[in-house]
Amino acid sequence: DGAATLDRSSSNYKLTDLQAALGLSQLGRFQFFQDRRCVMAATYREALSSKAVVCPSAPPGRTHGYYRFVMRLPQLGTDPEGLLRLLRTFEQKGISCRKPVFRPLHLYLGQTGFPNSDEADRTALSIPLYPGLTDDEVLQIHQSLTEILS
Length: 150
Description:
With 150 residues, the chain is mainly alpha-helical. Helices cover 45% and strands 5% of the residues. The chain has a single domain, classed as Aspartate Aminotransferase, domain 1 (Alpha-Beta Complex), CATH 3.90.1150.10. The protein is built from six helices and two strands. The protein has a two-stranded antiparallel ribbon. The chain starts with 16 loop residues before the first helix and ends with a helix.
């Protein structure tokens, strides 16, 4: 009969006209947003340069998009509660950090044997990085990174 059937759930992510208009207007500011994110990322990397932290980077000749600044703290790899304590410490300083992924996908599926995913879940932290942050807020985050990770 020509009817389509779905064997899994899906969603319709089409933009409304209003969302499309807003998106088009923001494209004109893309380079500003990107430049601002790069400046903030450099500030964070400077604060973290002497710490045991793996920062995001781009291959030679490429530019990082810095949609997020996800750092890894390998020293937390054996402490299942370490990242949660770190998140609370940042929160107490008024800095909203997040785990990059709420829960690794394989755990929803009841699967095991994904040690890299498990380690990333215990050691990855996303710190604020959006163009609307003021210079004072970036400085506060910089100072908090230096203090908390000492």
